[in-house]
Amino acid sequence: MSDKPDETSHDAGAADIRPETVDVDGLMEKFDRESRFLKVSGAWAMVVKIIAIAFSVFQLYTALFGIMEAQIQRPTHLMFALTLIYLLYPFRRNRSSAVVHPLDLGLAILSVAAGAYSILNYESLMESSGLYSNLDLAMAALGILLTLEATRRIVGLPITIIASVFLLYAFLGPYFPGFFSHRGFDIKRITTHMWFTTEGIMGIPLGVSSTFIFLFILFGAFLIKTGIMDFFMDLSNAVAGWASGGPAKVAVIASALEGTVSGSSVANTVGSGSFTIPMTKGLGYRPEFAGAVEAAASTGGQIMPPVMGAAAFLMAEFLGLPYVEIAKAAAIPALLYFTGIWLVVHLEAKKTGLKGIPMERLPKLWNVIKKDSYLILPLVGIIYFLCEGSTPMRAALAGLALCVAVGMIRKATRMNIKSLLETLETGARSALGVAAACATAGIIVGVVTLTGLGLKMGEGLVSLAGGMLFPTLMLTMISSLILGMGAPTTANYVITSSVAAPALLKLGVAPICAHMFVFYFGILADITPPVALAAFAGAAVARANPMQTGINATKLGIAAFVVPYIFVYSPSLLLIDYTLGGLLCMVITATIGMIGLATAVEGWYFTAMSWWERIMSALAGLLLIDPGLTTDMVGFSVLALISLYQYKKYRTNKDSAVSAVAELALPAQEEAEL
């Protein structure tokens, strides 16, 4: 996302409300490894462009005319990704040369060789019945090493170390204690299982990356080209910019909308935050709070239907469900998440007396809708095709076609051959990190299936928790958050769904509830200290203390820490076994419950709250979020009493303040009369 939005999308009648320019590229390079690529020029730039465009064309071709055999589609996808990673991401991060190093070029060539070997020999490899030659073994080992090194460069060292530890675990099984112990496997079995079968690197994660995920990333690149990000920002300003704490509320709305396009918490934080954070600070919010609002809202973009983060597509594949079912299940929790953030922002504004932006400085809502509402047609199209039962691939293709059509309406966004090729290149580059993460996550899945670790971990966690569900949920949450500090959301979900989710399934939790539980907490790692990349990126834009920003972001995202526990115990929150009347009642009561949680977190309702009021308010909120007649009645009663008590205290304080002002003014009035 560019930090220089298309000015044609603004309401001409409104004054420019955009703040000073923020160094988006510099911040992205600092907090997002995928942005630390080599700035190649000349012939090298042309080579990269051709390979990237070919990558996108291959993906579009297979989407249009049919996916190839898994042993061809997936190695080809990975071959393109590894080649581009080695050309764009140097061995040393601080190298400033615009020329590809010979070592990196050699690794790129070896990536082509390893991929081509699997593609050209896939029939003989499938028929070998495990009798692989020494050359097969060498190429498999080469492919694994190339995948790990590429992942280290573009994703980071933690996930690479985790995958390497899993490989060692497969080899050294007899030496591990207790339920971790297994018979062990030799190097030949491990390497060939990881590279030549569809249970390792070429497994389900890479399969989803090579089909659904790539096309939706490409769709995002085309959608940004239409200027929709500017429309989202103008719409958010028109809707909420005038209200108390307006710019912070704009950040919540804009980030929720942009989350339907961008699957990266950090990219969303820096992109929209370069505009919303300086505005929020300028209104009077603390820098740590301004950065936290944007980080929390941007992170929630990955759980916001209709187009969620890449891990949601993996969930659909793992569970064998249509993607639209995953999006539907995520709808109410996402609503609660953003409602919670909105309420805390509102209460902070009321507590500190912050106002909104004057109406005359904001775009007019009707003008924005009249001029730019057509830009959402691609998103509407994707929702329509998904709901009609189309596959995600077909829906994404329809969305791509609509993006091109929508872009033709305005001259500034009309695509010619040059801009079309540039967008294809951008889409391919954006998919590299996900492809590498999915490939390395496949190693972890491969070890789990080879050794039976998933079942062993499930039994171990349940045993450690004494067979009780709540302690098991706590342990699963902690493991998901820890893994999320070192692994991207996609890889985190693959690991936790393979290792931790079986423990929940063993205790009778519905599969979609178990997977959604680990999915949520993997995402929340982006705003949870001590390693909270989205919060730290927001802190950099706000020039705030990173740790304090992370703590504030965690408070803002309180709903996401609570809601997963609720839908495990009450699956109706994920639209499982629900009725229309019950669903409407559940949404209303849960939304009211968020008021209780928000006031407890902020310590403010109509006026300042004491410690016991905050505890009672939090309790009422939790009871209202939990679906059920008894919990709703108790929760509503408690929250009503707190509301009445707070309002009475507010009126008393207000009357006292008025009396005090009157007493101060009386001597002056008497003196004037004399």
Can you put this structure into words, describing what you see?
The chain has 674 residues and is mostly helical. It has 31 helices and no strands. It has helices at residues 24-31, 42-65, 70-88, 102-120, 122-126, 134-154, 157-171, 187-196, 204-225, 228-240, 246-258, 265-283, 287-300, 310-319, 323-352, 365-372, 377-387, 392-407, 417-430, 432-451, 453-464, 469-484, 489-499, 501-506, 511-524, 533-542, 546-556, 558-569, 580-602, 611-625, 629-673. It is globular.
Short overview:
The chain has 674 residues and is mainly alpha-helical. Helices cover 72% and strands 0% of the residues.
Outline, from the CA principal axes? globular
Which structural class do the helices and strands define? mainly alpha
What distance separates the N and C termini? 68 Å
Give a quick account of the main beta sheet: strands, pairing sense, barrel closure: none
Name the helicity range. over 70%
Q: Report mean pLDDT, rounded to a whole number.
A: 83
Query: How large is the radius of gyration?
Result: 27 Å
Low-confidence stretches: 1-19
